[in-house]
């Protein structure tokens, strides 16, 4: 999936988001044992603190007998009934959908102080090291963050 540290989160962190400007990276997935896709979506909204009235916060794909497309074919191979994911878009300077360039991301993180800076650093440390994106490399190199 094309994922990058491209969403300024509500807590100040530079969060990962599906980003059309990002290279493909290996992502992780897990089974969720629920009765309905709606219940699964509700649980994901709760975990990610996405308001119910926000239509674009969670993506879903329900499979049928003829999977078409990369995601559907992958899910079919895994014998999944459906796939859900956090679908919050990139966000920069308060603009939903705006993708920060690497320099913007570095500049933003440099402006953080105190608890917000500590939170942003902690967030990046918690993201699996396998998510070794170009922005993460730039943050490590230019800011000296251990992430």
Please explain how this structure is put together.
- There is one protein chain.
- The protein has five helices and six strands.
- The protein has a two-stranded antiparallel sheet. A two-stranded antiparallel sheet has the order 3-4. Strands 5-6 form a two-stranded antiparallel ribbon.
- It has helices spanning 37-48, 70-77, 102-111, 114-126, 134-143, and strands at residues 3-8, 14-18, 58-62, 82-86, 91-92, 95-96.
- The protein is α+β, with helices and mostly antiparallel strands.
- It has one domain (3-143).
- A hairpin with a 2-residue loop joins strand 5 (91-92) and strand 6.
- The mean pLDDT is 94.
Query: Class by helix and strand content?
Result: alpha+beta
Radius of gyration: 16 Å
Which range does the strand content fall in?
15-25%
Q: Which sheet architecture does the biggest sheet show?
A: 2 strands, antiparallel
Q: What value does the average pLDDT take?
A: 94
Distance separating the two termini: 20 Å
**Strands of the largest sheet, in order across it?**
1-2
Shape: globular
Low-confidence stretches: none
Count the E strands: 6
Encode the helix/strand succession as letters.
Answer: EEHEHEEEHHH
Helix percentage range: 25-40%
Number of helices: 5
Count of distinct structural domains = 1
What is the element layout, followed by pairings?
Blueprint: E1 3-8, E2 14-18, H1 37-48, E3 58-62, H2 70-77, E4 82-86, E5 91-92, E6 95-96, H3 102-111, H4 114-126, H5 134-143
Antiparallel strand pairs: 1-2, 3-4, 5-6
Helix pairs in contact: 3-5
In short:
Helices cover 36% and strands 17% of the residues. With 147 residues, it is of the alpha+beta class. It has one domain.
């Amino acid at each position: 999936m094309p994922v990058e540290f491209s969403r300024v989160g509500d807590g100040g962190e530079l969060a990962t988001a599906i980003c059309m400007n990002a290279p493909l990276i290996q992502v992780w997935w897990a089974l969720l044992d629920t009765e309905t896709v709606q219940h699964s979506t509700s649980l994901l909204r709760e975990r990610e603190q996405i308001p119910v009235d926000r239509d674009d916060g969670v993506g879903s794909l329900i499979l049928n007998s003829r999977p078409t497309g990369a995601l559907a074919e992958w899910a079919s191979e895994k014998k999944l009934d459906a796939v859900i994911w956090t679908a919050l878009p990139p966000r920069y300077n308060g603009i939903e959908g705006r993708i920060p360039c690497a320099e913007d991301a570095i500049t933003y993180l440099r402006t953080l102080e105190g608890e917000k800076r500590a939170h942003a650093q902690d967030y990046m440390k918690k993201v699996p090291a396998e998510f070794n994106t170009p922005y993460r490399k730039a943050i490590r190199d230019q800011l000296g963050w251990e992430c």
